[in-house]
Design a protein that fits this description.
This protein is mainly alpha-helical and 270 residues long. The protein has twelve helices and no strands. It has one domain. 77% of the residues lie in helices and 0% in strands. The longest helix is centred in the middle third of the chain and has 32 residues.
Length: 270
């Protein structure tokens, strides 16, 4: 019976990660909350990295056509200076530029920030901050397409993403807010945000491989980890599809309401 309860707990954790990763309500914050509710002690970040990688795979599946197009056109521009491919080449450069700030912060201070701020009270406060940020951009309708972006836009979005190293600050929320504040259309903001997620998540995963291997729970909890991984992958796929629909309809305000409610409940009762 106890083993079944553990499987259910990790299934729920994978579901929580998968649903909350793409939508602007903070997956890291929700994992902190649910681990507290389930009484699961966090030993490092190996579990979060593990299920985050599942979310990464789901994002790769959804944006596979964009990724293939960018790679092909980027190579065309480098090799043949194909002017029609320049826009996609620039888009790649902007993604690289936007990745640098969070890469630097993550390498230098990521563990310290995560350990210091991974408690429910902090998450409650940061969820309220996320709510305010999402509320600010709820009605924005930008004009910039992929080919209209600039280095300045990439830097601003990259700096916005660094805030999300704090549990409770949504990474997707931070980058979508940054993207829309610089004038991107919703579709472009979504694409830039989640293509930006790929190098960040992949880089984090590679850096944390030693921690995952040395995780004291990996042997005894291998099956629960696998269940959480598969659940996270499936949930992320459908949650991201749902977010695309939500943004197209201009209903981001509901995520703001949600973060306010959960943030207040966490501050008062956890």
């Amino acid at each position: 019976m106890e083993e079944l309860i553990i499987l259910i707990k990790y299934f729920v954790l994978g579901l929580v990660q998968g649903i909350t990763e793409p939508i602007p309500i903070s997956s890291s914050g929700h994992l902190v909350i649910f681990r507290e509710l389930f009484g699961i002690k966090a030993e490092g970040l190996s579990f979060e990295i593990f299920v985050n990688f599942a979310s990464l795979l789901a994002v790769l599946v959804i944006y596979r056509n964009d990724i293939v197009r960018l790679v092909i056109n980027g190579a065309k521009y480098i090799g043949k200076k194909d002017t029609e491919a320049k826009s996609d080449f620039n888009f790649i450069i902007y993604l690289i530029i936007a990745t640098i700030p969070v890469g630097v912060i993550g390498v230098l201070f990521g563990d310290e920030i995560g350990d210091a701020l991974s408690n429910t009270k902090v998450v409650g406060i940061t969820l309220l901050i996320t709510a305010i940020a999402v509320w600010v951009i709820r009605n924005l309708r930008g004009r910039k397409n992929d080919g209209d972006l600039s280095i300045k836009d990439a830097i601003i979005v990259g700096l916005a993403q660094t805030v999300a190293v704090t549990p409770g600050i949504s990474r997707s929320g931070a980058t979508i807010v940054g993207s829309m504040l610089v004038g991107m259309k919703q579709e472009t903001a979504l694409r830039f945000s989640f293509l930006l997620y790929i190098p960040v998540s992949l880089g984090t995963g590679l850096l944390e491989i030693p921690e995952i291997i040395s995780d004291p729970n990996i042997d005894t909890l291998l099956i629960p980890y696998i269940i959480a991984f598969l659940t996270s992958f499936i949930a992320t796929y459908f949650a991201l599809k749902w977010l695309m629909n939500i943004m197209a309809k201009g209903n981001l305000k509901y995520f703001s309401y949600y973060c306010v409610i959960v943030g207040i409940l966490v501050i008062l009762f956890m």
